[in-house]
Design a protein that fits this description.
heterodimer, A: 176 residues, mainly alpha, B: 186 residues, 83% helix, globular
């Protein structure tokens, strides 16, 4: 039963990947080794493609694996399974939060969680920055940052300009 | 804009379409679409949901969409938000699946990968700046930020472990405050 297998594998990923972003990758590579749904090489390509296709990597890979193994229905099942645990857990937590909103301990936990969330996000940024450090990249980063100080713009503005820079850069490499 | 299920779906469809380069980008997108343009939630709530989304299982972008959707219109809102978020992801992969290997080899596509990576960094910087004002308000919160940031960057400790630690600190803090209060009344 390929559908049941897809459901179980991707539900498992949704349930056990903590921290988001690239936390799903070890699970996805494990699937590449244990099933013939996609190869490790295909997965590496998928991860790269995910950065220019809409949606989180985990959802993209689930759709891809489902589609290549058993078409549209497989894609639907795999995609739904990867987000189903989130749906259940988040709704339960939201209900609990409503109920215990005024509890001092819950308040204190949220008060402490907020700066921690900010710190984790800052750490993601710094790690990405260190991985992508090339002189040209830093240059574009600084210019975009400068533009954001002059006037705050839509996220699409920054993504658009940086994609365009990348596109132009690839052409200079091509001709140079 | 009215918070109807259709509008929630539509808004998250837009966010899902712009969600390039990893789940964390959803935060600046939600800030722009839901906090600034539509005033459906405030930065304070977004900040709380972000922290919670990182501390539970699942994809951050999915968790965050469901928290916000639930806040807007309970369970149906959560379903509308998550479906809107994943529809563009689903369609783009189904369309690309067959030509994936040819696409990845194209020079200009690789150029775009590289460029988008930089744009994503700018968005993350702006998101941190925005939630900084909401979350770091005194010495204690600054300390939490600093310690978590260092542990995460230098020691690469998993976010799940750090968040569990933070929850314990939050409980101990209230415990301490309670004790201090009692000490004063006696």
């Amino acid at each position: 039963m390929i559908y049941l297998q897809l459901f179980l594998e991707f539900f498992h990923i949704g349930l056990f990947s903590f921290g988001g972003g690239y936390a799903t990758l070890p699970f996805l590579f494990h699937i590449a080794e244990t099933h013939d749904w996609y190869s490790a090489k295909q997965l590496t390509d998928m991860i790269a493609v995910s950065s220019i296709t809409p949606g989180p990597v985990g959802v993209n890979v689930a759709t891809f694996a489902g589609y290549t193994t058993s078409g549209i229905l497989g894609a639907l099942i795999a995609t739904t399974s990867v987000i189903l645990p989130s749906l259940i857990i988040v709704i339960i937590i939201s209900k609990l939060l409503e109920q215990f909103k005024h509890n001092l301990y819950i308040k204190s936990i949220i008060y402490t969680l907020k700066p921690a969330g900010c710190g984790l996000l800052a750490a993601v940024g710094v790690n990405m920055f260190l991985n992508e450090i090339t002189l040209l990249g830093v240059g574009i980063f600084i210019v975009l940052l400068g533009l954001s100080f002059i006037k705050k713009r839509d996220p699409l503005f920054y993504l658009g300009i940086s994609a365009l820079c990348g596109l132009l850069y690839s052409f200079t490499k091509f001709f140079g | 804009m009215e918070k109807s299920l259709y509008n929630i779906y539509k808004t998250f469809f837009k966010v899902g379409t712009l969600l390039l380069g990893g789940g964390y980008v959803i935060l600046p997108l939600l800030q722009s679409e839901l906090v600034e343009k539509r005033s459906w939630i405030d930065n304070d709530e977004l900040c709380e949901y972000t922290a919670l989304s990182q501390s539970i299982p699942g994809l951050i972008a999915a968790n965050l969409s469901i928290f916000v959707g639930y806040k807007l219109k309970r369970t149906m809102g959560a379903l509308a938000a998550i479906s809107g978020m994943i529809t563009p992801a689903f369609l783009s992969i189904v369309i690309l699946a067959k030509i994936l290997e040819e696409v990845i080899k194209l020079k200009f596509i690789q150029g775009i990968f590289w460029g988008v990576g930089i744009g994503v960094l700018v968005l993350i910087y702006l998101a941190v700046k925005e939630i900084w004002h909401k979350s770091i308000i005194d010495k204690f919160t600054f300390g939490v930020f600093f310690v978590i940031f260092l542990l995460s960057v230098c020691l690469k400790i998993s976010p799940a472990v750090l968040i569990i630690l933070v929850i314990i600190v939050g409980i101990l803090r209230q415990f301490y405050l309670d004790k201090k209060d009692r000490g004063q009344t006696e």
